[in-house]
């Protein structure tokens, strides 16, 4: 048995597995790191499974195969090349798979799968075994408590079977964060009814288990064993008899507890008798039963003929149908015939999708994390077939790497793929998968091309999901590196890579001409703004867009078809809930609040104030600009500059330590003392209720102790970051810093009367608005400006810090963790470790390779439909997945909403086409005469070019001007040579004088 990599065991490499750890957790990852996997069959599907399992971080994987590489394998087995033809597939793939993760022992094995050999594994995956071998191994695995997964892809059909044994324990069924809720009351009776605070929905389900903390009075509940609840309503639930407990007084938090669940799987033989199917497409409810028969019949056909049915051969298809009918009389004949005609083929995106699903099942079997498939899953993507039926002649092989694909789609479609031009936006995890799938399809290898852009550099945390990158690629450009990797997989591929973001600033490159030559766009983005921008570009250029997104084990694919579907921007997720200002400033009650406060502190102290000071030094116009800002903003900014350059400017590292110590005292002692001076612990409201109750936690000031690690953590990180801002050499010796901080004399603080502290959100928001609306003290402004002009050292070097969560040596997260946990200590909030703090403060999107593989594969199946020329909505499938449940669902895209003016219907895909050059007056007349529309307002971007309320003199000045000149004058920008047209938004009245909604105008420049 050949082996690669020997690293195993030890601690989890959090810098590598960072994003995956937020999906699976440390316990599940440790169980995976102790699991040995056997994968038999290294075709395209087997490779995809192996890739994702290795990236996931199991202990070892043994790659087994007895088959040698053929030309057909090259359609989807991206680690094989023509030079590998005739070699064992497992042996030829092993080295490249091993490169994916040095922590996973990767072996190849070409011998027999004996019982003795099988007994060493935790999970066995079969992708290329006949029915006899499946039954033998199935019996052995079930009897020996070894998880078994069988997976196959044939043409556009797929099968997955899972048997994890008689007693399989699921430790977390869905992976969702445990829900918690604050308590308003608990009845002292047989039902024990818990009511949530301020009518907040508790989010529990009937039968959930909860435990309690911070309950005043009914002490028996604090830290109790998990209690099963009965949900009575959205705000109440029952915990059973509390009559023997102390009476409830106040407070408390109820937190969901994930309880282990044991399920029993049937063996392969038993499950085959009465199969239970996971349904994914409710438009094809009867398909799984027929496909169950078809996959079984395929083995019989091969045994009888020693080969697969010939592609698109009617005679073979009829023989296959007969075998199916002998197994079960009432099968879907058309589905069976279609299965026979394409089952000899293979395509990479289907292997990617199914490979991701199966790999996730492997990780479930290792870890007990998430709910497994129970027990059969069937899938087909027949909508991908060309609209014009493929003939047997058109499906004949050409002696190329695409022959297995031609067996499904025909030669004509392969030519269409070769001539396609598609733009992949983003070369991260999704982008890497899209590139691989495009490359293996042969997209753009003829007169077409693939374009890809990404402005980011590769980081270590990317390597766990972005499989085209290796450790030696860290800090290289993602797009260029990914493009090179794809060219190595398929030398035919033509890829042009850019290191650019998409946006207004790069329209010189991604111009109207650029989009005009594209056949479609595939988004692989991680932010909404860029998605909306690309959505608008695709609408304007009337080209298809396939949108893919993932979040942990969840993901979706949306296909946007010109003149048919709604766009990405037609519907949007609700905005994230923001934390109220007064909660952040004075009344936090959750670790999320203290972490946001810590982030704000970092941004204010190490970035914004430093940025203001740096700009004052380097930009002569900076002062002039800030003096034009509204309200008290000029004074606030000048005060921060004065502190940064004069009052608090450090000259040595000891000064930085002193600053950190003073800052500590202000944040965790003085501000809390002032708050308690205003609102003492015994304070009551006007209604007689305790002020410090419900979500308001009564804080306690901290007393600095150099021997408290968290106290010194803050000084250590804060002082070093301060030193970095001012270019002072850092000191990374904790003992030295401890000695310095003990020399700092901290003045005594006395709370002041008259300090106003807002206690509700409306008042806090109003106070924040005064920042923009308040009156500025001009004398104070002038005094500061004079002091700065006289005393500020313009040669000072100040470097604002950009928060970077993934660099463990820069002390950014050290500061955030200490800053947050100290405030949590003030308010008796349970602290968060570095791992959780990074997730929340860094706004990390949890991610795992399996989800990316599934959703990217499904996205490229939609691309195939678009290239095939399909435009009928029922052919397309928006996809929604949650691999944890497991849940996979498909729906027809929604049609574009229809609008109307007069008797003309229009959608977001329609527009007025006007060819210039016209004067503004001619433009208005054009719509008045041709469309019977009177323009009341006309804008371009954010510039208002014309309106019915415009002053007469200004209107008279603009009306004779050419439209392009109006744009230049009003927007104060030049029209670039690459701009072929302008977009105008218009508001109109009809002939009755009523407002009507109309499309935008595309004004083509001469």
UniProtKB/TrEMBL annotation:
Q: Name one GO biological process term.
A: protein sumoylation
Concerning InterPro entries, the annotation shows: E1_4HB, E1_FCCH, E1_FCCH_sf, ThiF/MoeB/HesA, ThiF_NAD_FAD-bd, Ub-activating_enz_E1_C, Ub-E1_IAD_1, UBA_E1_C_sf
Identify which residues the record assigns to the active site.
582
Keyword list, A-Z: ATP-binding, Ligase, Nucleotide-binding, Ubl conjugation pathway
**Which one Pfam family would you cite for this protein?**
E1_4HB
Q: Does the keyword Signal apply?
A: no
**Annotated Ubiquitin-activating enzyme E1 C-terminal domain residues:** 876-1001
Q: Which Gene3D superfamilies does the record cross-reference, listed alphabetically?
A: NAD(P)-binding Rossmann-like Domain, Ubiquitin-activating enzyme E1, FCCH domain, Ubiquitin-activating enzyme E1, inactive adenylation domain, subdomain 1, Ubiquitin-activating enzyme E1, inactive adenylation domain, subdomain 2, Ubiquitin-activating enzyme E1, SCCH domain, Ubiquitin-activating enzyme E1, UFD domain
Gene Ontology terms: cellular component? cytoplasm; SUMO activating enzyme complex
What top-level branch of life does the organism fall under? Eukaryota
Task: Give the enzyme class.
Answer: ligase
Reaction equations catalysed = ATP + ubiquitin + [E1 ubiquitin-activating enzyme]-L-cysteine = AMP + diphosphate + S-ubiquitinyl-[E1 ubiquitin-activating enzyme]-L-cysteine
Which SUPFAM superfamilies did the record assign? Activating enzymes of the ubiquitin-like proteins (SSF69572)
Tell me which EC number(s) this protein carries: 6.2.1.45
Give the GO molecular function terms: ATP binding; SUMO activating enzyme activity; ubiquitin activating enzyme activity
CDD domains attached to this UniProt entry? Ube1_repeat1, Ube1_repeat2
Which pathway does this chain act in? Answer: Protein modification; protein ubiquitination
Q: Which PANTHER family match?
A: UBIQUITIN-ACTIVATING ENZYME E1 (PTHR10953), UBIQUITIN-ACTIVATING ENZYME E1 C-TERMINAL DOMAIN-CONTAINING PROTEIN (PTHR10953:SF4)
Q: Which family does it belong to?
A: Belongs to the ubiquitin-activating E1 family.
Name of the protein this chain belongs to: E1 ubiquitin-activating enzyme
